[in-house]
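Run Transglutaminase family protein through structure prediction, thanks.
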Amino acid sequence: MLYDITLKITYAYETAAESGRHQLCLMPADLPGEQRVIASSLTVDPSPTEQTWHTDFFGNSWADIGYDGAVKRTEFKVRSRIERFDPDELFDVSPDMDGIERQLDTLTSVQPLSPHHFRWTSERIHRHGPLAAWAAERTAGASSAYRIAETLSNALHEEWTFDSQATMVDTPIEEAFELKRGVCQDFAHLAISALRSLGIPAGYVSGYLRTIPPKGQARLEGADAMHAWIMAWCGTDMGWVELDPTNATRAGADHIVIARGRDYADVAPVRGALRTSGKQRTSQAVDVVEIAD
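Sure, done. The structure for Transglutaminase family protein is below.
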């Protein structure tokens, strides 16, 4: 699949913001065998005083920008052309949980995507007793690590409601669990916490999702989305498998990867600090348009 992707994020400040320092994780990743970046650019308006790039421990690309003066608004715009490959046909060769534990005990790698980095508490993910109990109950009949991960992902989709107004970016998993509603970030965090409580290493994937309008309706400009899904480690033979609990599906050709980490805190699209007072308004528009080969 070939896609043209456009993202525009705008911040408008009631009072001019000074001394802004931002880190941006917005660019699609170049992943051999998964997706290829043909062309990609980031435009920042107004132009920052300084801009550099760095790669983090997990291999994600970040733009670091800074403003010396005051700004009333900032706009970040990404344009990319991406080739996204269909995932390989999946065969479940994952072990049961005793096998997962044995493999983890003998695995010595601490490379960026080693499952050892994704087993325990991270900044936004910790064990929540009621969630762990729910996960154990829902996956009681699953015989392999992959079936556990798939069953859990599907159960979240069935029992939670997508609601863009229910949670905030910093909503803890305890609150999202009680609400039984939220956005893709909440679905992903709940799935990661639940899988780790069962002994399956799990991580967070940020990206873009192409959405398909209902039959007979025109595609709306800006109606696609930044999205989040999970990756679950299903043993040394299967490795990492990516699942989308918001949509009860395996991540596929419609999922374009930006970054991978332990949770949202590792891959937040925009983070930083500035000095201002009063309110600010934020808007976001995403277009993921398929291009004919």
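The mean pLDDT is 94.
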